[in-house]
Amino acid sequence: MKQLLAATFLALLPNLALSDIIPEPQDYRMDHYRAPVPATIAGGTVLDPQAANDIWLSGNAAFIDVMPQAPKPENLPEGTIWRDKPRDTIPGAIWLPNVGYGAIADVTADYFRKGLEQVTGGEMSHPIVMFCLEDCWMSWNAAKRAIEWGYTDVYWMPEGTDGWAFWSYPLERIKPMEPQP
Hints:
Layout: H1 2-16, H2 18-21, E1 45-46, H3 49-58, E2 62-65, E3 87-89, E4 94-95, H4 106-120, E5 128-131, H5 137-148, E6 154-157, H6 160-166, E7 172-174
């Protein structure tokens, strides 16, 4: 029995500290967005769900969900009903879908900037918390982009709404900020 437990522990050990060995890239992550993420974000602060909840309860930070959203397919057959996938997120957060890709179009960058300006009142030092899902590079890319644009109090929650829900913190259904690019 001891040998089985030891073998199981050793088999799981590499996964326990995987985020500690994922290097922070110099530039944006460009593909495979659902993958283990680094434990750091240069110029920003990493939050676990408990610390994010403390900030959320204080009401002093803007929470920005960057979960991507599939666009409505063009040329759907007449009569086809299209329903966007619903998004449950941290109450009070705004949803800015698709701003976390590694390369974004100018129209998407403008959409992201408008969203940031809206939630910060144009104050570059206003705290912002970026998140998506666990092991999702979208939020890391979005946080990196905000830092590069001059935001000085950027938090990144790598566990996203998965970690938030794990701790039984509240979620609410929201729609993306309009107009979307």
